[in-house]
Specification:
Blueprint lengths: L24 H14 L2 H73 L4 H13 L4 E8 L4 E6 L24 H12 L3 E2 L3 E2 L5 E11 L2 E11 H8 L2 H6 L1 E5 L5 E4 L14 E6 L8 E6 L10 H47 L3 E6 L4 E4 L1 H7 L3 H4 L14 H12 L8 E6 L5 E12 L5 E10 L1 H23 L3 E6 L5 E4 L1 H7 L4 H7 L7 E4 L22 E5 L4 E11 L5 E9 L1 H28 L1 H27 L5 H29 L7 E3 L1 H18 L3 E6 L6 E3 L1 H21 L8 E11 L3 E10 L6 H4 L17 H11 L3 E9 L2 E12 L24 E3 L2
Parallel strand pairs: 23-25
Antiparallel strand pairs: 1-2, 1-6, 3-5, 4-5, 5-6, 7-8, 7-10, 9-10, 11-12, 11-15, 13-14, 14-15, 16-17, 16-21, 18-19, 19-20, 20-21, 22-24, 23-29, 25-26, 26-28, 27-28
Helix pairs in contact: 2-7, 15-16, 17-18, 18-20
Length: 866
């Protein structure tokens, strides 16, 4: 609402007592004259020019403000008019909808209280719609959504087929607006309006569902369908439709019906003035929109306005022309000063020397950098003709030749490199570039030369060349082959002398060593046969491939090949290979392996040689028994004093003794048999049993007992069983010899052999074999040298037994150690142990005939002795 309170009248404020304002015109003129005389002439000219310009601009601003105020006032009046017309239309339609709703409620009550058939309902509906042209259908629907009666208004248009379209009625399970409104009326027991939708003919309509309630029981609905076009046509006042356009839009602001229809195929233009009001009492998302347009032309279309603007612009242009003419000289002078300062600062900051010459070769200008390079002041150079003072005395002819090329315009585009002499007679290297000087008329007036000191860059270039030569010399002198191959193009980028000597200048040698070529003339030692990094971008390569050994058949050589990827000088991805001839090392390793194999066989033969007397004694017992059995049977057969059963029993005993002797010989033969080392899944229990069976002969001879402990359910070992048996037997024999040589009493003449699983952070899961005796132990100084070749604590020992045992264990990726056992400070025995790693994926050892299935349980100890 506009504020209707009276506007207070402004009263002029009293001037301050400290600075009273002049109240008379002569005083004001006098003060203005004093201020004007204090200004400089230039400032006075500026004020004299800006005063009229400011007056014209203030006049133009006043005219524009007046036009703007009148235009805004007109727009406000139009906005108020559109708002009033929209509200008036809202009242008219709302009143009509309320009247119809009340009439339909009375009709619904009559339908409930007095039963009617379809014909009576049609007559009642016809009388109802005759005076209400905005209604298109009136339908009676029961609670099961079945139509009981329907009436079509005579003003309703026919469809495209000439038939009257059926009204959209509620259907169970449908998502149509009629079904949604039906449920709302049924649930709320009050009349419900639907949202606008298009009927079968495409016209925009909405429905009113009035529930039929019989003593709080829902008996159906009375459906009245409204046409939006008819509502606008009959209930928008005539004076309102003449002044403004009225439309009905939905909640998405889409126009559904309007009093003004747009041309076919064209969208309705949006009016600049809008006023909206909801359609009451429906409140179903429909909104009445009043549209208004400005009747007067805009400010920019007003002729009077443009005439004032043109006159003002003309005046301003004339004043600006005068002001521009007055400022021109001061601007030119300031530009000249600024340009001069800029050129001077640029010349002083440039490290490049500049020299200008005329067409005759006379120096006309040098900058500060040129003077600093040569040591000559500008006054000593400007105006000079050749020869110039910075020329070397012994190279005047060369400098003159270069100057003639410069004056003729034939200087190379890459510049001229020459020696320049300073004023103090020192010399430096310089490079000069020449370009012509052109005046504003396009005529050449001389030459401009730029000079740069290249002494330091030339020194660095020479050092780089020398460094490259030294590096190349080192690579050429290597005994190893070095080659660099482009990954994308497959061409050799660099090879040294060794590569060219072995493989020539072709890239095939690089491919063969890198594993990129398939050929039967070479072998690869290792798992990697293909370079998986070939073709990968440089930034994704974190390191080179692992070293590997390659055999080149045509050369008959083994090479240790190491590869890595690098970025070549031109940015290409390249692969570098360094191949070292390791043929001699491979042959030495092969010979060492052959010697180690012979040493293992020799050690076993020596062991059996040392046990020869024990073996002979062990074989003598079954052979003597066989002889006795045979002699006894011969005597009793001759005397015919033996029965058949006794003869069979004697023969069976003789056969068992023969089998016993055969088993001893078979075990000795299997132990000393020369064969290739072969790893296979083996059971620890079987290895221990075979070793104890052979060592038991020596232990019996030396009167030493053995106690064996083998854990149950041990996993299989991927080992050579003969070699591990040799280690166990050697440890048992050494323990028995130590006990026997020390002549210990019977209580200490026993050995303990234990096989148990272990798990350590360093080795992981392993199986530990340990041999513990109660002998005199080993001296501390001897423990550190136990595994040295040809070192022995025995008087007649060769010193290869323990060294060979350690080599066998380490070849199986195990560890071996020895330690004394103490009782306080007294040595009471010695313990040798070695571990073998457990191969994952191998099955566990089944229990040896015991019903106990508990993991980790120990087998019953066995004792062997005499």
């Amino acid at each position: 609402m506009p504020d209707s309170s009276p506007v207070p009248q402004s009263t002029p404020a009293a001037p301050p007592a400290t600075a009273p304002l002049p109240t008379t015109l002569p005083q004001a003129k006098r003060l203005f004259g004093q201020w004007w005389r204090r200004q400089s002439p230039a400032r006075q000219d500026r004020f004299a020019t800006l005063g009229p310009l400011l007056s014209v601009l203030l006049f133009l601003a006043a005219i524009i403000s007046a036009f703007w105020y009148l235009r805004n006032e007109e727009i406000d009046r139009e906005v108020e008019s559109v708002k009033r017309d929209t509200e008036l239309t809202q009242q008219q339609m709302g009143l009509r909808l309320i009247q119809n709703q009340e009439a339909l409620i009375r009709m619904a009550r009559e339908l409930v209280t007095r039963p009617l058939d379809a014909e009576e309902f049609g007559a009642m509906a016809q009388a109802f719609t005759r005076e209400r042209p905005e209604l298109t259908h009136l339908t009676w629907v029961d609670a099961r959504r079945a139509p009981r009666g329907s009436h079509l208004a005579f003003t309703y248009p026919l469809g495209s087929d000439g038939l009257t379209p059926a009204p959209l009625l509620p259907q169970d399970g449908s998502a149509a607006e009629s079904e949604t409104t039906f449920r709302a009326a049924r649930d709320s027991r009050v009349p419900a309006y639907s949202r606008a939708f298009a009927d079968a003919s495409g016209a925009q309509v909405f429905q009113l569902h009035v529930p039929l309630m019989d003593r709080s029981l829902f008996g159906g609905v009375l459906v009245a369908e409204y046409s939006l076009d008819a509502l606008l046509r009959h209930f928008v006042p005539a004076d309102v439709s003449q002044r403004h356009a009225v439309a009905i839009v939905n909640e998405k602001r889409e126009q559904l019906a309007a009093t003004v229809t747009a041309m076919p195929g064209q969208a309705a233009a949006r009016a600049p003035i809008l006023s909206e009001a909801p359609l009451t009492p429906a409140f179903n998302g429909l909104v009445l929109r009043g549209q208004g347009w400005r009747t007067s032309i805009g400010l920019v279309h007003n002729t009077l306005f443009w005439m004032v603007v043109a006159l003002s612009v003309l005046t301003v242009w004339m004043l600006l022309g005068t002001w521009r003419h007055m400022r021109r000289r001061s601007q030119i002078q300031g530009a000249l000063v600024q340009e001069t300062n800029f050129r001077r600062a640029m010349e002083n900051s440039m490290p490049t020397g500049m020299r200008a010459m005329d067409m005759e070769g006379r120096i006309t200008y040098v900058n500060a950098a040129f003077s600093q390079m040569t040591g000559f002041a500008p006054a000593e150079l400007v105006g000079r003709l050749p020869p110039f003072p910075y020329w070397l005395p012994d190279r005047h002819d060369e400098h003159m030749r270069l100057l003639q090329l410069e004056l003729q315009g034939r200087s190379p585009s890459a510049g001229i490199e020459l020696k320049v002499m300073r004023k103090d007679s020192t010399v430096f290297d310089a490079r000069m570039y020449v370009s012509p000087l052109i005046d504003p008329k396009g005529q050449q007036t001389g030459w401009m030369t730029s000079m740069t000191n290249i002494t330091e860059s030339k020194r660095i270039r020479d050092q780089l060349s020398a460094s490259h030569e030294r590096f190349t010399t080192v690579l050429e002198g290597l005994d190893a082959s070095v080659s660099v191959l482009s990954v994308q193009q497959g061409e050799l980028l660099f090879t040294n002398r060794s590569y060219r000597l072995w493989f020539g200048g072709e890239a095939r040698g690089h491919h063969v060593m890198a594993g990129n070529a398939t050929s039967a003339s070479f072998e690869v030692d290792g798992d990697e046969e293909v370079d998986n990094l070939a073709g990968m971008p440089t930034q994704e390569l974190t390191g080179g491939a692992s070293p590997r050994e390659v055999y080149i058949d045509p050369l008959g050589k083994w090479f240790d090949v190491r590869a890595r990827y690098l970025q070549w000088t031109d940015g290409r991805l390249a692969q570098m290979l360094i191949a070292t001839d390791v043929t001699a090392r491979r042959r030495a390793e092969e010979q060492a392996a052959a010697q180690a194999e012979k040493a293992q066989v020799t050690s076993r033969l020596m062991t059996m040689g040392e046990m020869a007397s024990s073996v002979a004694h062990e074989l003598n017992q079954p052979l003597t028994a066989i002889t006795n059995y045979c002699n006894g049977m011969v005597s009793r057969v001759k005397a015919e004093s033996i029965s058949q059963d006794d003869l069979i029993a004697a023969l069976q005993k003789t056969a068992r003794q023969a089998e016993r002797a055969g088993q001893i010989i078979h075990r000795i033969r299997a132990f000393v048999k020369k064969s290739e080392p072969q790893r296979q899944p083996s059971q620890a229990r079987e290895i221990v049993e075979d070793a104890v069976e052979l060592a038991g002969i020596e232990l019996k001879r030396r009167n030493v007992a053995i106690h064996t402990y083998v854990a149950q359910r041990l996993p299989e070992l991927m080992v050579d069983p003969i070699l591990i048996e040799q280690v166990v037997m050697n440890l048992l024999k050494n323990a028995a010899e130590a006990i026997d040589n020390a002549q210990l009493p019977g209580s200490r003449r026993h050995i303990e052999l234990r096989v148990v699983p272990r798990h350590t952070p360093e080795e992981g899961g392993v199986i530990e074999f340990s041999v513990t005796d109660m002998g005199p132990g080993i001296k501390d100084e001897a423990i550190a040298r136990l595994y040295e070749a040809f070192f022995s604590t025995k008087k007649e020992g060769l010193g290869i037994g323990l060294s060979l045992c350690r080599s066998i264990v380490e070849s199986h990726r195990g560890r071996m150690k020895a330690q004394n056992l103490y009782n306080g400070t007294q040595i009471v025995g010695c313990r040798f142990s070695f571990t073998l790693p457990v191969e994952l994926g191998l099955k566990a050892e089944p229990p040896a005939g015991a019903p106990d299935t508990t993991p980790g349980a120990l087998a019953a100890p066995t004792t062997t002795g005499r």
